[in-house]
Amino acid sequence: MTVMGGAEATARSDAQREKRTAILSLLAGALVWGVIWYPYRILRDAGIDGVVALAITYGVAFVSGLFFFRRELASFSPSWTLLWLALASAGCNLGYVLATLNGEVVRVLLLFYLAPLWTVLLSHFLLGERLNRFGAFVISLSLAGAATMLWHPRIGLPVPQDAGDWFGLGAGFSFALLNVLSRRAQGVSIEIKSMATFAGAVLVGMALVLAGFAQPQMPDSPTIWLLLGLIGCVLLVVNLVVQYGLARVAANRAIVIMLSEVGFAALASWLLAGEVIGHREWVGGAMIVAASVFSAKMERIDCEA
């Protein structure tokens, strides 16, 4: 009995350690995503289109992954889930970059974190999770927050006001879909899921360039190429870290942890870009943050039921 008790304590300790590591990995990802908009703005100011910058940086991450993950890629098996994972990643990353290039960073991120609304719905349809009254409350609170932020005194209707708003909303939906699909693909290694996310961003970015939606101007400065390569390496690491966390933390709880990105971005946008957000955005954002917190509580209630 003593041996079994010791084994159980060890297993419990290992599980707690893994959970703490997963939470720290999501916090690290939130920190990176809260500030990575700034180097993309530097690239934009240097004349590099956001779509082109995204395709190149994720191309660097993909090529690096081919070298570092060659052993794991030997077991690669294509699937529809991986395809949708790649497309969701492309929508999330492309939307995030374009949103932060075209709008106020904190406002964009608050709209991005309408993800609890999309996560509740997608978890219901794709993972079979129950949509109870608490879930309906989360949806209502998220929508109320969005309406508060998007309402315009002259227009009246709570609709996105510019490209940054639209990109932020689209990126948030794609992030929720990526979150849910990552949990659904439990049998797929983190390395393969990361490579799928890189490939999706590269292919969709290249398709947009070929379709004429972006200016295909290439950098002509070694410094800019160095910055592109550095961003690509950071993306490689942070995607691995975040995928590790997403695979071990429930979807709704992961959204709450990743909300720390708003705080990191608020500080970075104030220090680096001099951006200040208005009272209406903070009120609507508080509703959205509260909805995210309640979405995690909703999950705990479901688990206890």
UniProtKB/TrEMBL annotation:
InterPro entries (alphabetical): EamA_dom (IPR000620), EmrE-like (IPR037185)
Organism in which the protein naturally occurs: Candidatus Propionivibrio aalborgensis
Name under which the protein is recorded: EamA domain-containing protein
Transmembrane segments: 21-40, 46-69, 81-99, 105-127, 134-151, 163-182, 194-212, 224-242, 254-273
Keyword terms, alphabetized: Membrane, Transmembrane, Transmembrane helix
A Pfam family reported for this protein in Swiss-Prot or TrEMBL: EamA
GO cellular component terms, semicolon-separated: membrane
Limits of the EamA domain: 21-150, 164-294
